[in-house]
TrEMBL record:
The keyword Metal-binding applies. The keyword Membrane applies. Its main location: membrane. It holds the Pfam family Zn_ribbon_LapB. This is Lipopolysaccharide assembly protein B. Residues 24-393 are cytoplasmic. It is a single-pass membrane protein. InterPro entries: LapB, Rubredoxin_2, TPR-like_helical_dom_sf, TPR_rpt. It comes from Variovorax robiniae.
Length: 393
C-alpha cells in the first residue's frame, strides 16, 4: 500500500500557522506579565518613597505573585515587614527564600542574615542565636559574631561571650582585650559567689594579664584578696592601680582604706590619697581620708584659728574650693546646734536631697544608679559610667 504524501504536504502549512499563533500567544502573555511586574514594583517603590507603607506592601505582594522568582522583591518585602514590626510575616518571607533550591549561595547567606535580624528584632534570642551561627564563614560573619556577643552578654552567658569575643579579637579588626577581661571578671564573680575562690583567683589573674591597664581586674583581685585575709597584698594591688589608672581611684578608695586599716598602713594610705586628692578632688577619696583620721591637703587653705582641727573638718576644706551639697550634708550630720531637737528632721531632708547626687550616670544612655556598673543595664555598653558621682560631673 502506497503512502499518500498529499496530506502531509497540505498539513505542513497548517502546522506552521498553528505554531506561529501559539508562539505569538506565549510572547504576548510573557510581555504582559513582564509589564505587570515592573509596574507593580515601581508603584510599590513610589508608595515607599511617599511613606505609604501599607500601599507599598500591597504593591510588592502583587509583584511577587506575578513573578515569584524575583529575589529582590522578596528581600524588599521582608524588610518592610520587619520595619513595621510584623516579624512573623518577615520570617515567613525569608524562610520561603531559604526553602528555594535555585537560590544562589550569596542570596542564601543574605536571606539567612535577614532571618536572623527578624528574630533579633522580635526578641526571639534562641532562634536568633541559631540563625546567626549559620553565618559563620560568610561575608556576614563579623556582623553575626557581634550580634551573638550582644546576645550572650545580655543573657549573662559569659563563657560563650568570651569565646565569641576571642574570635573577634583574633580577626584583627578591633581590640576586644578589655571586653574579654570583663567577661573573665564576671565569671570570677560567679565562682566567688559559689565559694570556689581558687577558680575565681585564676580567672582574675588571666583578666589582669589580658588587660593590665584596665581598673576592674585589679579592683576585683584586691576585693578577693581582702576576702581571703590578704590585706597587705590587697593594699599593694590597689596602690599600684593608683599609678596605672588614677582616674578610677574614687571607685576603690574605700577598699584601699579597708586594706590599709587591716594591714596597719594607714599613714601610707593617707599620704597616697592626699596626693591624689590634691590632683583630682573627689568626695569618695575625701571620705576615705577622713575615715582614717586624716585631712585633705587643699592649696591656700587657712588653718583653723581657735579650735583644734577634726577629721571631719575636711568637708569644710572641700567646700572652700568645691561647693558640694553632699559634703555639706556630711559635715552637718555631726554638727551641734542650739536647737538640736530639730536636727534629725533637717538631716533627713538633706539626705533625701543628696541621694540623687550620689548616683552614677551612664555617659552613653543617661541611665542612673546608686551602684557603679561596669556593664550598663540600660544600653549594655561597657565602661560607660564615669567613676565620679553625678554631683561631681
Amino acid at each position: 500500500m502506497d503512502f499518500d504524501y498529499t496530506w502531509l504536504l497540505a498539513g505542513l502549512p497548517l502546522a506552521f500557522v498553528l505554531g506561529w499563533l501559539a508562539s505569538r500567544f506565549d510572547l504576548r502573555q510573557l510581555k504582559m506579565e513582564n509589564r505587570q511586574a515592573p509596574k507593580a514594583y515601581f508603584r510599590g517603590l513610589n508608595f515607599l518613597l511617599n511613606e505609604q507603607q501599607d500601599k507599598a506592601i500591597d504593591a510588592f505582594i502583587e509583584a511577587v505573585q506575578n513573578d515569584p522568582d524575583t529575589q529582590e522583591l522578596h528581600f524588599a518585602l521582608g524588610n518592610l515587614f520587619r520595619r513595621r514590626g510584623e516579624y512573623q510575616r518577615a520570617v515567613r518571607v525569608h524562610e520561603h527564600l531559604l526553602g528555594r533550591g535555585d537560590l544562589s549561595r550569596e542570596d542564601r547567606d543574605r536571606a539567612q542574615h535577614a532571618l536572623a535580624q527578624d528574630f533579633l528584632r522580635a526578641g526571639l534570642l534562641d532562634r536568633a542565636e541559631a540563625a546567626l551561627q549559620k553565618l559563620e564563614g560568610t561575608r556576614y560573619e563579623t556582623e553575626a559574631r557581634l550580634a551573638l556577643l550582644a546576645i550572650y552578654e545580655r543573657s549573662r552567658e559569659w563563657a560563650q561571650a568570651a569565646t565569641v569575643a576571642q574570635k573577634l579579637d583574633e580577626s584583627d579588626q578591633a581590640s576586644y582585650a578589655t571586653r574579654r577581661a570583663h567577661h573573665l571578671c564576671e565569671q570570677a564573680a560567679e565562682r566567688t559567689a559559689a565559694g570556689d575562690l581558687d577558680a575565681a583567683g585564676e580567672l582574675l589573674r588571666q583578666a589582669v594579664e589580658l588587660a593590665p591597664q584596665a581598673p576592674r581586674p585589679a579592683i576585683d583581685t584586691a576585693n578577693l584578696q581582702l576576702r581571703n585575709g590578704e590585706a597587705a597584698a590587697a593594699f599593694d594591688t590597689l596602690a599600684n592601680l593608683c599609678d596605672i589608672a588614677p582616674l578610677a581611684l574614687p571607685l576603690f578608695a574605700a577598699a584601699l582604706q579597708q586594706a590599709a586599716i587591716a594591714s596597719q598602713r594607714t599613714g601610707e594610705a593617707i599620704a597616697l590619697l592626699q596626693r591624689r586628692y590634691a590632683a583630682s578632688p573627689s568626695i569618695d577619696v575625701l571620705e576615705a581620708i577622713i575615715a582614717m583620721g586624716g585631712s585633705p591637703k587643699v592649696p591656700d587653705q587657712d588653718p583653723p584659728a581657735d579650735t583644734p582641727p577634726e577629721p571631719r573638718d575636711g568637708y569644710i576644706a572641700h567646700l572652700t574650693h568645691h561647693p558640694s551639697l553632699v559634703a555639706a550634708s556630711r559635715w552637718l550630720a555631726k554638727e551641734q546646734f542650739n536647737r538640736e531637737q530639730f536636727h534629725p528632721q533637717v538631716q533627713r531632708a538633706l539626705d533625701q536631697a543628696t541621694r540623687p547626687l550620689m548616683r552614677y550616670r551612664c555617659a552613653a544612655c543617661g541611665f542612673e544608679a546608686h551602684q557603679y556598673f561596669w556593664h550598663c543595664p540600660g544600653c549594655q555598653a561597657w565602661d560607660s559610667y564615669p567613676p565620679r558621682r553625678v554631683e561631681e560631673l
